[in-house]
Design a protein that fits this description.
The protein is mainly beta and 181 residues long. It has 2 domains: 39 residues, no CATH class; 137 residues. The protein is built from 1 helix and 10 strands. The protein is elongated, with a radius of gyration of 20 Å. This is DUF4402 domain-containing protein. Keywords: Signal.
Length: 181
Protein backbone atom coordinates (compact mmCIF):
# COMPACT_ATOMS: atom_id res chain seq x y z
CA UNK A 1 0.00 0.00 0.00
CA UNK A 2 1.36 3.44 -0.85
CA UNK A 3 1.90 6.10 1.79
CA UNK A 4 -0.93 8.16 0.29
CA UNK A 5 -3.34 5.20 0.49
CA UNK A 6 -2.29 4.48 4.09
CA UNK A 7 -2.91 8.11 5.07
CA UNK A 8 -6.31 8.06 3.37
CA UNK A 9 -7.20 4.82 5.16
CA UNK A 10 -6.11 6.31 8.49
CA UNK A 11 -8.21 9.42 7.93
CA UNK A 12 -11.27 7.38 6.99
CA UNK A 13 -10.84 5.07 9.98
CA UNK A 14 -10.14 7.95 12.38
CA UNK A 15 -6.72 6.50 13.27
CA UNK A 16 -3.84 8.88 13.95
CA UNK A 17 -1.58 9.36 10.93
CA UNK A 18 1.66 7.48 11.36
CA UNK A 19 0.11 4.82 13.56
CA UNK A 20 1.29 1.38 12.60
CA UNK A 21 -0.26 -2.01 12.92
CA UNK A 22 -1.84 -4.90 11.11
CA UNK A 23 -5.53 -4.19 11.49
CA UNK A 24 -8.06 -5.78 9.16
CA UNK A 25 -10.30 -4.12 6.62
CA UNK A 26 -13.35 -2.48 8.10
CA UNK A 27 -16.75 -3.51 6.84
CA UNK A 28 -17.63 -1.22 3.96
CA UNK A 29 -14.03 -0.01 3.58
CA UNK A 30 -13.18 1.99 0.47
CA UNK A 31 -10.89 -0.70 -0.98
CA UNK A 32 -11.73 -4.35 -0.21
CA UNK A 33 -8.86 -6.26 1.40
CA UNK A 34 -6.98 -3.09 2.39
CA UNK A 35 -5.49 -3.15 5.89
CA UNK A 36 -6.15 -0.20 8.15
CA UNK A 37 -3.46 0.97 10.63
CA UNK A 38 -4.31 0.38 14.27
CA UNK A 39 -3.96 3.00 17.01
CA UNK A 40 -0.64 3.52 18.78
CA UNK A 41 -0.72 2.36 22.46
CA UNK A 42 -0.91 5.16 25.08
CA UNK A 43 2.70 4.55 26.16
CA UNK A 44 4.06 5.00 22.62
CA UNK A 45 4.97 8.56 21.64
CA UNK A 46 6.54 10.24 18.62
CA UNK A 47 8.68 13.26 19.52
CA UNK A 48 9.64 15.81 16.84
CA UNK A 49 11.84 18.92 16.84
CA UNK A 50 10.32 21.67 18.98
CA UNK A 51 8.10 19.27 20.92
CA UNK A 52 8.37 18.21 24.53
CA UNK A 53 6.98 15.09 26.19
CA UNK A 54 6.10 15.83 29.81
CA UNK A 55 4.97 13.01 32.09
CA UNK A 56 3.83 13.18 35.70
CA UNK A 57 5.16 10.03 37.32
CA UNK A 58 3.81 8.60 40.56
CA UNK A 59 5.28 5.95 42.84
CA UNK A 60 3.18 4.28 45.52
CA UNK A 61 5.23 1.49 47.13
CA UNK A 62 3.03 -1.39 48.21
CA UNK A 63 0.14 -0.59 45.88
CA UNK A 64 1.22 -3.07 43.17
CA UNK A 65 2.82 -6.50 43.14
CA UNK A 66 5.84 -5.53 45.27
CA UNK A 67 4.94 -5.42 49.00
CA UNK A 68 5.94 -2.52 51.23
CA UNK A 69 7.89 -2.67 53.39
CA UNK A 70 10.00 -5.30 51.63
CA UNK A 71 10.51 -8.67 53.34
CA UNK A 72 14.21 -7.91 53.87
CA UNK A 73 15.65 -4.69 55.34
CA UNK A 74 16.65 -2.08 52.78
CA UNK A 75 19.35 0.58 52.93
CA UNK A 76 21.72 2.62 50.78
CA UNK A 77 23.84 -0.50 50.16
CA UNK A 78 20.82 -2.79 49.68
CA UNK A 79 17.97 -0.64 48.24
CA UNK A 80 14.39 -1.69 47.46
CA UNK A 81 12.95 -0.99 43.99
CA UNK A 82 9.40 -0.16 42.94
CA UNK A 83 7.99 0.48 39.45
CA UNK A 84 6.21 3.68 38.47
CA UNK A 85 2.41 3.61 38.66
CA UNK A 86 0.18 3.63 35.58
CA UNK A 87 1.09 4.15 31.94
CA UNK A 88 4.36 5.97 32.70
CA UNK A 89 6.06 2.75 33.82
CA UNK A 90 7.36 1.94 30.32
CA UNK A 91 7.62 4.54 27.55
CA UNK A 92 8.28 3.72 23.89
CA UNK A 93 9.65 6.98 22.48
CA UNK A 94 10.28 7.40 18.74
CA UNK A 95 12.32 10.52 18.00
CA UNK A 96 12.61 12.29 14.64
CA UNK A 97 14.81 15.33 14.10
CA UNK A 98 15.92 17.47 11.17
CA UNK A 99 18.85 18.79 13.23
CA UNK A 100 22.27 17.74 11.92
CA UNK A 101 23.43 16.83 15.43
CA UNK A 102 20.79 16.26 18.11
CA UNK A 103 20.33 14.66 21.52
CA UNK A 104 17.39 13.48 23.59
CA UNK A 105 17.44 15.49 26.83
CA UNK A 106 15.65 14.75 30.12
CA UNK A 107 14.67 17.44 32.62
CA UNK A 108 13.30 16.22 35.93
CA UNK A 109 11.98 17.70 39.16
CA UNK A 110 10.22 16.25 42.18
CA UNK A 111 6.72 17.39 43.09
CA UNK A 112 6.78 18.38 46.76
CA UNK A 113 3.99 18.17 49.30
CA UNK A 114 3.79 21.18 51.66
CA UNK A 115 5.22 20.32 55.07
CA UNK A 116 6.81 17.08 53.86
CA UNK A 117 10.47 16.58 52.90
CA UNK A 118 11.06 16.16 49.17
CA UNK A 119 12.10 12.84 47.68
CA UNK A 120 15.73 13.04 46.49
CA UNK A 121 15.64 13.26 42.68
CA UNK A 122 18.32 10.61 42.25
CA UNK A 123 15.93 8.01 43.73
CA UNK A 124 13.99 8.07 40.45
CA UNK A 125 15.91 5.87 38.05
CA UNK A 126 15.51 5.12 34.37
CA UNK A 127 16.83 2.53 31.93
CA UNK A 128 17.14 3.19 28.21
CA UNK A 129 16.96 0.32 25.72
CA UNK A 130 17.69 -2.29 28.39
CA UNK A 131 20.86 -0.61 29.72
CA UNK A 132 21.51 -0.53 33.49
CA UNK A 133 19.36 1.88 35.51
CA UNK A 134 20.73 5.41 35.98
CA UNK A 135 19.73 7.90 38.73
CA UNK A 136 17.86 11.00 37.50
CA UNK A 137 19.29 14.48 37.77
CA UNK A 138 17.73 17.85 37.01
CA UNK A 139 19.18 17.91 33.45
CA UNK A 140 20.85 15.14 31.50
CA UNK A 141 21.40 13.78 28.00
CA UNK A 142 19.58 10.46 27.54
CA UNK A 143 20.96 9.59 24.11
CA UNK A 144 22.52 11.00 20.98
CA UNK A 145 20.55 10.74 17.76
CA UNK A 146 22.27 9.17 14.75
CA UNK A 147 22.93 11.29 11.67
CA UNK A 148 19.67 10.01 10.16
CA UNK A 149 17.87 11.98 12.90
CA UNK A 150 15.62 9.06 13.85
CA UNK A 151 15.89 6.79 16.88
CA UNK A 152 13.70 4.75 19.19
CA UNK A 153 14.14 4.71 22.95
CA UNK A 154 12.54 2.18 25.31
CA UNK A 155 12.49 3.93 28.69
CA UNK A 156 11.65 2.12 31.95
CA UNK A 157 11.18 4.04 35.21
CA UNK A 158 11.54 2.86 38.80
CA UNK A 159 11.88 4.20 42.34
CA UNK A 160 14.92 3.28 44.49
CA UNK A 161 14.24 3.34 48.24
CA UNK A 162 17.09 3.46 50.76
CA UNK A 163 15.06 3.91 53.96
CA UNK A 164 15.66 7.64 54.57
CA UNK A 165 13.08 9.06 52.14
CA UNK A 166 9.68 10.45 53.11
CA UNK A 167 6.95 7.82 53.43
CA UNK A 168 3.92 7.68 51.16
CA UNK A 169 3.25 8.46 47.54
CA UNK A 170 6.02 10.21 45.58
CA UNK A 171 5.63 12.21 42.37
CA UNK A 172 7.93 13.76 39.81
CA UNK A 173 7.60 15.57 36.50
CA UNK A 174 9.85 14.30 33.72
CA UNK A 175 10.22 16.13 30.38
CA UNK A 176 12.01 14.84 27.30
CA UNK A 177 12.93 17.06 24.34
CA UNK A 178 15.16 16.94 21.25
CA UNK A 179 17.88 19.58 21.37
CA UNK A 180 20.87 20.52 19.26
CA UNK A 181 24.17 19.33 20.66
Amino acid sequence: MTARAALLAALIAGTPAGAQGTGTALPGSVLPGMTVPTAVPATSVVLLDGQKLTVSVAFAPGSGDAPYPPAVPFSKTSPAYYPASGDARNIHLSVQSALSSAALVLRAHVVTVPGQPALPLDRIEYSVNGAPFVPSTALQVIGLLPTTGAATFEIVLRLRLEGDEPAGRSQAVLSWSVEAR
